[in-house]
Design brief:
Elements (H helix, E strand, L loop, with lengths): L2 H22 L7 H20 L3 H29 L12 H24 L8 H24 L7
Helix pairs in contact: 1-2, 1-5, 2-3, 2-4, 3-4, 4-5
Length: 158
Amino acid sequence: MAKSRKLFSSCSLLMAIMFGFSSSVQLNDPDWYFWFPLYACACVVNLLNWRISSKRTIKHIAKVALWLGVVLFVKVVVEDFVSKIAGFWSLDMSERVVREKTGSALVIISMILHLMTLKQGKKKKIGRVVEYGMAILVAFSYGLPFVFFVIQKGVMRF
């Protein structure tokens, strides 16, 4: 297994853990039926791409997760714009719309990277954009909540 493939696989496993946790905490939300399938599909794609390379199954699930992520991202951005809660570029994790916007953006980026990997076919080496993109995505997805909740000791608002 090529070095870049190992990095991508490790990052896929970490993102699968993140999306699996995210889907599990959605079950007590009033709109869980939107967010649970999004995070569950993203978790499945990352797990399948980490462990096996069944191109056909992963591709269909990744496309569903990508479009669901886009729809939910637009929904949250419009809700934020109309309500004037936080602003488009805000990373204030105390606001629900910012957490939902960030989560759907993470799913969108992850699915784009996975679809780019699947498009390459049987090549053993994956491109640097995908390799480093996934590493940056992992760093951001684990780093942002750590900084907000541990270092700044932020509190969520619902």
